[in-house]
Amino acid sequence: VLARDICRLLTSDSAYLTALGEYNRRFVLENYSASRMADDHMAVYGRLASVKTRCSEYDALICGYFGYGNMGDEAVLRGLIRGLRERKPDIRLCVMTASPGKTARAFCVDTVYRFDMARVRAAMKKSRLLIFGGGNLLQDSTSNASLRYYLYILRSAKSCGMKTAVYSNGIGPVLEAANLERIAAALSACDSVSMRENRSFELAKSLCPQNKNIRLTFDPVLLRESDGKNDIAGTLGLEKGKYFVISPREIDRFSMKKLADAANLIAKKYGLRPVLIAMQRGEDLPVCRALAGDIPGSFVATENTDLQCVLALLADAAFLISSRLHTLICATSAVCPMMAYSEDVKLRSYLEYSGIAEIAGISPSADIKSTPQEIGNIADAVISRGTEIKAHIRASLPTWRALAEYEFSEIIKLIQ
Q1: Which residue, 307, 309, 302, 238, is CA-closest to 276?
Q2: Which residues, at least 6 apart from 335, have a Cβ–Cβ distance to it below 8 Å?
Q3: Is residue 114 classed as helix, strand or coil in its secondary structure?
Q4: Using 50, 70 and 90 to split pLDDT, how confident is the model at 303?
Q5: Is the pLDDT of residue 186 over 90?
Q6: For 277-289, what is each residue's pLDDT tens digit?
Q7: pLDDT given for residue 125 in this prediction
Q8: Distance CA 345, CA 141 (A)
Q9: Residue 228: its pLDDT value, please?
Q10: Nearest to 138 by CA among 76, 75, 196, 224
Q11: What is the Cβ-side half-sphere exposure of residue 239, based on CA atoms within 13 angstroms?
Q12: Does 323 score more than 90 pLDDT?
């Protein structure tokens, strides 16, 4: 291509070269002149100067599963902060996190250790709004203690006179009926509730029929896009379109073996190389390495430590098998066909909500009861309808992203 272009320039007439020179000069003056670059830098400095930290009062206290190194949850926090600061540059934010110093440096916010309840209560007393989410925080499958903690946070916020916004959440799995009643009581008192998939939305409406401020939205991670500059596939020696991605999480060894057997079937049938990624590095990387031992020719992408790398890797993949919801959402943003392998109902619900299930003509979600052949059959359906799935995602993304963006405006209304 370079040789062709040089030859074209060397053999072009003077009129063409004059027109080309004038166009190039205009382009540089409009986009790369000293004044334009200075203006761009000043705009960045202006945005940074408006960021408020070490505040005596806060517009919002943000609660979620932050500070644990989970790439999806950290992306939720980044998207939330970005969306709020775009609409209110001087917004004063404090984040409840497991890693206060790290979160403060990464997001330029005030922080409080999420289990220091005295400091959390102190932050609540000087905050106007609690932003609760995102993620499936209201569930008891992890433990009753986790659910009790989050319900306590919601109740405490109200007792401190705060407004509460449940932001891009999901409900469940909930194993105890009494816990559903507790969740209903907490959500009924909230000023704003948005759910990121249809099953949780319908459940929230049924639990809180009197609360008219319950909306269906999309997870803010969907707003993240690949910048197109990261050729992670090439860097890792992968041929574009000739690999598929597996995003696992810890499960029992027998179920892991079934996933490995299915991956081997898919790799052999379609000539694709399996690539394993860890969305929550501390938990998922050992699982990736264990799976790689059962999948000959597979590759563990240990360098994938940021979301841009994940998005770029998915954009060039044939399809995705995921046990993590946020990897499915990243695949949606990257326009990559996908299926789930998980017991967690939220993954299946997301694939139904986004319309992937309907286009695939089969529920694109396997669980630990599925055989390797059944997992492979779902993969066949997703791969065979990959073109239709991609077209559906591309057509729907503007609407889905608009829904996610709308939530920022609703939060700003609550603090004004």
Answers
A1: 302
A2: 315, 390, 393, 394, 397
A3: coil
A4: low
A5: yes
A6: 999 888 999 999 9
A7: 97
A8: 11
A9: 67
A10: 196
A11: 4
A12: yes
Write down the H helix ranges in 225-280: 232-235, 253-270
Q: 340 pairs with which residues across the strands?
A: 322, 365
Mean pLDDT of the chain: 93
What angle (nearest 5°) sits at the alpha carbon of residue 150, between those of residues 139 and 285?
65
How far out from the chain centre does Cα 330 lie?
6
CA atoms within 13 A on the CB side of 137: 25
- In a 13 Å sphere around the CA of 388, the CA atoms on its Cβ side amount to 12
Q: What are the CA-CA distances from residue 229 to residues 44, 328, 394, 397 (Å)? A: 21, 22, 20, 21
Q: Is it the case that residue 226 has pLDDT exceeding 80?
A: no
Q: Which helix (H) or strand (E) holds 283?
A: helix 281-292
| Integer Cα distance of 1 and 8 in angstroms | 11
Q: Measured in Å, how far apart are the chain's first and last C-alpha atoms?
A: 56
Residue 134: cis peptide before it, omega within 30 degrees of 0: yes
pLDDT the model gives residue 231: 77
Q: How far apart are CA 105 and CA 99, in angstroms?
A: 10
Name, in order, each residue with C-beta under 8 angstroms of 414's C-beta and a sequence gap of 6 or more: 128, 129, 163, 165, 191, 192
Could you tell me if 318 and 238 are in contact, meaning their C-beta atoms sit under 8 angstroms apart?
no
118 pLDDT more than 60: yes
pLDDT for the residue 50: 81
pLDDT of 79 over the 90 cut: yes
pTM: 0.85
Q: How far apart are CA 391 and CA 335, in angstroms?
A: 8
Block residue for tokens 């040089």: 6
Instruction: For residue 139, give both structure tokens.
Output: 């569930």
Q: Is the peptide bond before 398 cis (omega within 30 degrees of 0)?
A: no
Mark out the alpha helices in 137-176 (DSSP H runs): 144-159
CA distance 187 to 346: 19
**Tokens 């009753």 identify what position?**
144
pLDDT recorded at residue 305: 64
Of 129, 131, 116, 112, the C-alpha closest to 67 is: 112
**Do 191 and 131 contact (CB within 8 A), yes or no?**
no
